[in-house]
Amino acid sequence: MNTEASLPTTLGELSRSPWGRPPMRGRSVRDEIRGNLLARLDRGGTLFPGILGYDETILPQIVNALLARHDFILLGLRGQAKTRIIRALTDFLDERIPIVAGSEVNDDPFAPISKYARERIAELGDATPIAWLDREHRYVEKLATPDVTTSDLIGDVDPIRAAKGGHLLSDELSMHFGLLPRANRGVFAINELPDLSGKVQVGLFNIMQEGDVQIKGYPVRLPLDVLLVFTANPEDYTARGKIITPLKDRIGSEVLTHYPKTVELGMAITAQESWTDRPGVTVPRFIHELVERIAFEAREDRRIDRRSGVSQRLPISVLENAVSNAERRALLGRETDVVPRVSDVYAAATAITGKLELEYEGELVGGETIARELIRRAAGGALESLISDLDAERVVAWFDGGGVLRLSGEEPSEAGLKAFAVVDGLMDLIRASGLEGVERPAVAYSACELVLEGLAAMKRITRNDDGWSRVRPERKRREP
Hints:
480 residues, alpha/beta, Rossmann fold, 5-stranded parallel sheet, 42% helix, elongated
């Protein structure tokens, strides 16, 4: 690997180095990415670190698009790692590339596209200074909004530059380059493509295909070497805008992303992305599963707008909020073993309501009510999944006999376990469950809450704001 000291500093030195000979010389950014990707595939290993759940579905399609040297678009709902994927494309670029020093558009010293670089090379020849551009600086990203203009993306005439340099307005040297030319020999990404106005999209596809554009009526030829990638919600999922047909036709590959297919994958993503590694904090697996199942339940709830989707950020935020509530509760109760409980997940309901787009029926019910229902249903699913041979007859019988258990969820673990011990069979069920860590009071308390919440979700016992009980339906009196 070349060090900074050994890198060529002039065009003459560059011509005599490996960069001055094929295959390095004249290699386009698409060929560069293709070559590095093929080498990575040959070596084996992870292509997109940190991207989980796409190995068999999305990533092969992206690899195919890159090997085909295509521009491509990722279509999917919010929270499906689209931006993370496109930012990871820089890993397939060379560590650094040579450019003409002072160039605004990263001119290739052997094939300059700007007038500045051409004149510089014509004047200095082999003495032309060379600069080096790292891969991190070869990625340019723009969030599309309706107010983005062609000038922002392509460029505009700069009267001040023209006046200072004594150039005509039609001279290329009077042009201020936009984001796309400045991404030359790199990757240019546009997030939420449909939000761009139609006329800006026209400017994009023209420079993509023909390499030319008109700025203030002056034709400018810019044969850019750039890989274009886009993200968007599927057209029928958004009412904010659409991708014009000629632009869609020029995008080589279209890849549809998706949410995690299984709860296990969702848990892995949430565990990777959430901040739970805090002093004294332990998050039991059953709490991880409960939180993840909230998102899965929400994606199936007809009161929640499926066109908008339920982002993977929902379980991440819920888990972080639940852990924070557990920290607060443990501090007030003078406990050092911090373990989130189901009641802490209920306290994190605000992290759910802010991430749901409700249908009309959902608006009538209210976001807070729906959030609590989602948590309870998720508890039922987690209980059935984790304790497959659940035998809770003694627990249910205790409530059937008139038993009522009232806990606030704020009690220290030892005090709470004394209350749970009153429920016949509950502690035996917890000890026989096989759940990891239940020998610790804080984990045992959390597991007891999960069992009772799960039974309430199964409608075997009743849950209200006061606690758990068993309410029998009243018999109808016969009319005399």
